Amino acid sequence: MSTLMTVSRLDVRYGQKLAVNQACLDVAAGTITTIIGANGAGKTSLLSGLMGLAARSGSIVFQGRDVSDEPPESKVRRGMILVPERRELFGSMSVQDNLLLGAMAVKATRHSRRDRLDLVYKKYPRLSERRTQQAGTLSGGERQMLALGRALMGNPRLLMLDEPSLGLAPNFVNQMFEWIVGLREEGMSILLIEQNARLALDVAQYAYVMRQGEISPRADAAEMRSREDIAAQYLGPRRKA
Ligand SMILES: Nc1ncnc2c1ncn2[C@@H]1O[C@H](COP(=O)(O)OP(=O)(O)OP(=O)(O)O)[C@@H](O)[C@H]1O
């Protein structure tokens, strides 16, 4: 399987604070790679470092090209697209305008924007029904749907999802993860950051653990799920069926 992105010795700093320490990771094309870890372990900082949204050093090779020093907008144009933890939608704008913003950074003709919009509406009919509604009036689940739809408008090659389960009702979490699996089945490569390790390890092929800014070597997700130390720290008690 070919490698889509290779990250080597990535450091992310906030002033004196080193939030990510010499992180190395690979994302294989067409897979879901997850990074699990407790609150504050540095997962969000790692994504910020990858996108160039925080001070960082180290190297990022994407589709064979060194993009380490490129600004965020150029990474977006290459298809590195992040759905941030806080979703960052524009609450007073309509659903459709939020979606169209997702196509702004990429070179898209009006025609191809229209096609992508149709595709997103077909995937998420609820967004189509609410296309004229203000984003701020959507439910938590719908907002997450919109954030995902907006990312898809940018035609991602690597979709980076920061805690997609956060703040969602359990039913909607399951729905969200079905979409994530569906996107991968269509060939999308996904980097999934999750505190809900059980869910993440169930859908991923590869996994890393982050602890206090340091990232583990890569493991098969299935192998990681069966490790007792991981189960004890991150998986919690199994829910009764
Ligand atoms: N803007 C910032 N300025 C200073 N320190 C920060 C900033 N953002 C994060 N940190 C610190 O960096 C460390 C890693 O935080 P980060 O948010 O990356 O962890 P996380 O694993 O994503 O946790 P969470 O799940 O809560 O987002 C924490 O100690 C946090 O307090």
Automatic annotation (TrEMBL):
This is High-affinity branched-chain amino acid transport ATP-binding protein LivF. Pfam families: ABC_tran. The lineage of its organism: Bacteria, Pseudomonadati, Pseudomonadota, Alphaproteobacteria, Hyphomicrobiales. Residues 2-237 form the ABC transporter domain. Belongs to the ABC transporter superfamily. Involved in beta-(1-->2)glucan export. Transmembrane domains (TMD) form a pore in the inner membrane and the ATP-binding domain (NBD) is responsible for energy generation. PROSITE patterns: ABC_TRANSPORTER_1, ABC_TRANSPORTER_2. One of its GO terms (biological process) is L-amino acid transport. The keyword Zinc does not apply. It comes from the Bacteria. It comes from Bradyrhizobium ivorense. Keywords: Amino-acid transport, ATP-binding, Nucleotide-binding, Transport. GO terms for molecular function: ATP binding; ATP hydrolysis activity; branched-chain amino acid transmembrane transporter activity.
